[in-house]
Specification:
Shape: globular
Number of domains: 3
Largest sheet: 8 strands, mixed
């Protein structure tokens, strides 16, 4: 683990820092000593320039100073990575912020920018397998990244601060990164904000300190995490923190939320240990040290997201108590399926959403609100002409990443599997899937192979019909 950033590094950023960058052609020739540049994308067919090749990030050490009055962010990030080839240059993802300096292993590096791609050329080639540290100083006003199909993600300003979240794009809006779920890393996060505000992020609290009117809140996320799951919530919150069953819980609720909604949120959050025990009975031990949630009164983003160890919700998610409990179940189920088990490529999004939606069905049955079979039959009654059946769930296409079919038909696929192989094999599959790939990346093909191995059956027909055929399958 790279050393933590000192508070002074965060507080002394200014435009007087010397620029190490050069014009755009500076990175084109590669560094001395041979080697080749890393690929400008990680290889995801949906988003060809997301992520980058040539290196594997091990740890992000992130220091952020945020001023709500101006929405200005000043950041220093140190990225510890391993070269996966002889690397003459490599790319980072960053959207809209201004780079002030870059060093690699303490030496000034050249860089150029094109769109969201930052190409870094170190002073010498990085050998295969070498661990190296890249330090980037940057600043600016973080943006909201808007997409007509997928919605918005990024830095959403609130009355007293900011909430940073999004999927599939958010990390590049507030720190340079290898921005793709397939390159998971651990994190140290220090958020410096005006005294009197809370600054909440992923993982467990690692202390805080106050100087000259600013407070730095430190967080440690030791388990590997995908970049889009990194979050920050800065503002005034009522915070409840406690430890239970070896898990550090931390919940934050905006006191500006109306009293009736606030009460429903608090009641749902109080059930988190109970919900985790319930889900652990199906999926195996909870994979992280931290759990909890954040609700801000603003909620402009309009969705709940499974940020690792610290999901973010909107007040609208808690319109009724049943709604609130259900959405908490969904986001906590993601801690296994989506966070601990991250998709290798974005086309596998059903491995996140189908599993979390099925967890909601299991909870509904547990609460006496409708059985899993009833949920399945209600959806199966949907006419064959409906859009629910017009999608390849395991490859929906980038514009349809969050379509209803990914969630609902994804959950139906799991129940069709259950009806086909029987409960003992099915629940062994769910648990084995979560435990065998803990803190890793997964594909649909791997899930099919595991289901066939555990059940002892050829399931190609079932999965072809439910995941890859854009028409209504036969009832299992």
């Amino acid at each position: 683990m790279v050393r933590k950033l000192a508070l002074a590094l965060v507080l002394t950023l200014s435009t007087s820092l010397a620029l190490a960058g050069t014009p755009a052609d500076a990175a084109s020739s590669g560094a001395p000593g041979g080697g080749t540049p890393g690929a400008p994308g990680i290889g995801d067919p949906y988003y060809p320039l997301d992520g980058n090749g040539g290196y594997d990030v091990q740890h992000y050490d992130l220091g952020i100073r945020y001023a709500p009055a101006t929405h200005a962010l000043a950041g220093v990030v140190q990225i510890r990575a391993e070269a996966t080839q002889r690397l003459s240059a490599f790319n980072l993802d960053l959207d809209g912020l201004t780079i002030r300096s870059i060093t690699v292993d303490g030496r000034p590096a050249k860089w150029s920018r094109s769109g969201t791609e930052v190409t870094v050329t170190p002073g010498r080639t990085l050998g295969f397998g070498r661990l190296f540290a890249t330090r980037i100083v940057y600043d600016g006003v973080p943006k909201v990244i808007r997409d007509p199909n997928l919605g918005d993600g990024g830095a959403f300003t609130t009355d007293d601060g900011v909430v940073i979240l999004g999927e599939p794009w958010v990390a590049r809006a507030w720190f340079p990164s290898n921005d793709h779920p397939s390159d998971k890393a651990s994190y140290s996060i220090a958020l410096t904000v005006p005294r009197g505000l809370q600054a909440i992020s992923n993982g467990v609290p690692a202390g805080r300190s106050t100087a000259r009117g600013w407070t730095t809140w430190r967080w440690e996320q030791r388990e590997p995490m995908a970049t889009y799951l990194a979050m920050a919530a800065i503002g005034k919150y009522d915070v409840t923190a406690y430890r239970k069953n070896g898990i550090q819980f931390l919940d934050a609720i905006d006191p500006a939320i109306p009293a009736d909604t606030y009460a429903r949120i608090a009641k749902s959050f109080a059930r988190e240990p109970e919900i985790l025990r319930f889900l652990s009975g199906y999926f195996g031990p909870y994979p992280f040290r931290a759990a909890g949630g954040v609700v801000d009164a603003d909620g402009e983003w309009g969705f709940a997201l499974e940020n690792q160890g610290r999901p973010i919700y909107t007040p609208q998610d808690f319109a009724t108590q049943e709604d609130g409990d259900s959405v908490v179940v969904h986001e906590l189920a993601h801690q296994w399926y989506g966070d601990s088990l991250a998709q290798e490529r974005w086309r596998g999004i059903w491995l996140n959403e189908g599993f979390a939606s099925y967890a909601e069905w299991l909870w509904s049955e547990h609460e006496g609100l409708g059985t899993v079979q009833q949920k399945f039959e209600e959806l199966y009654a949907t006419p064959a002409t409906d859009s629910l059946w017009q999608s390849k769930v395991a490859d929906p296409g980038a514009p349809n990443l969050f379509s209803r079919a990914v969630y609902s038909r994804g959950a139906m696929t799991l129940h069709a599997l259950r009806l086909t192989v029987g409960d003992p094999a099915f629940f062994r599959i769910l648990r084995s899937w979560a435990q065998l790939h803990r803190n890793g990346n997964v594909t649909t093909e791997e899930f099919v192979a595991l289901a066939e191995r555990i059940s002892g059956r050829d399931l190609d027909g079932l999965f072809t019909a439910w995941l890859y055929t854009p028409s209504k399958p036969a009832h299992p």
